[in-house]
């Protein structure tokens, strides 16, 4: 991985995990296996890597931890396996951030791609009408923000390269899967076509709505600096990412938010 995320951490692939450098804290990874996410896939009976992705929630530099805790923030890191899930890309199952006790709201998430190419798919609702649906294509160094209450999952676009990314999350995080599972996934499935390009297939358990496909953008409204690791931006201004853990403080910016 040639991207420097602002602190000394390196992904490993055999086995999956992360190596934490001097002065860096982090847990043992949690693995998500193919059997854990089958019900959210277009083809639940597909074959693919047994460990689909590995997660380490709450990593960072020891001297920053107090500032993170004060702001109800944690930094999470994830690596996806190379390969495919049948003819679908490696991806997560999808969830909604449940309402956190710390702020009384569903919370936002700020992603940063470290290695590989990704799509962050998100939809406004998990009701029968999913509302606005977006597929945001992101490359190494790109940032993507998922707003509160949106259901979302992350896709690895390149089957040859493991995807690794970091994200600012609320510390008392929780996930809501109920309505997603009732609909057997989110409103669109990503599938590789014969040219190895992603096509978006509508999930018939939802009303059909348009999917908006776009590239990652700059988030000037939140003062996110292009080309500066989001961890480093936190070190420079720890309050910058209160948009994640306390989105109610910037409610006016979320009302008309465009990912």
Describe the structure in brief.
The chain is mainly β and 259 residues long. It has one domain: Jelly Rolls. The protein has 6 helices and 20 strands.
What's the layout of helices and strands?
Layout: E1 9-13, E2 16-20, E3 24-25, E4 30-33, H1 34-37, E5 51-57, E6 60-61, H2 65-70, E7 73-80, E8 84-85, E9 88-89, E10 96-97, E11 109-115, E12 118-123, E13 133-138, E14 143-146, E15 151-156, E16 164-170, E17 175-176, H3 178-182, E18 188-192, E19 198-202, E20 211-215, H4 230-236, H5 242-245, H6 251-255
Parallel strand pairs: 13-20
Antiparallel strand pairs: 1-2, 3-6, 4-5, 5-7, 7-16, 8-9, 10-17, 11-14, 11-16, 12-13, 12-15, 18-19
User: At the first level of CATH, what is the class?
Assistant: Mainly Beta
Percent strand: 35-45%
CATH architectural type: Sandwich
Task: Look up the CATH topology.
Answer: Jelly Rolls
- Cα-atom radius of gyration: 17 Å
Order of helices and strands: EEEEHEEHEEEEEEEEEEEHEEEHHH
Shape by Cα distribution: globular
Number of domains: 1
Structural class call reads: mainly beta
Structure description:
- By secondary structure, the chain is mainly beta.
- It has one domain (9-255): Jelly Rolls (Sandwich).
- The chain has helices at residues 34-37, 65-70, 178-182, 230-236, 242-245, 251-255; strands spanning 9-13, 16-20, 24-25, 30-33, 51-57, 60-61, 73-80, 84-85, 88-89, 96-97, 109-115, 118-123, 133-138, 143-146, 151-156, 164-170, 175-176, 188-192, 198-202, 211-215.
- It has a six-stranded antiparallel beta sheet with strand order 4-5-7-16-11-14.
- The longest helix has 7 residues, at 230-236.
- The two termini are 27 Å apart.
- The relative contact order is 0.19.
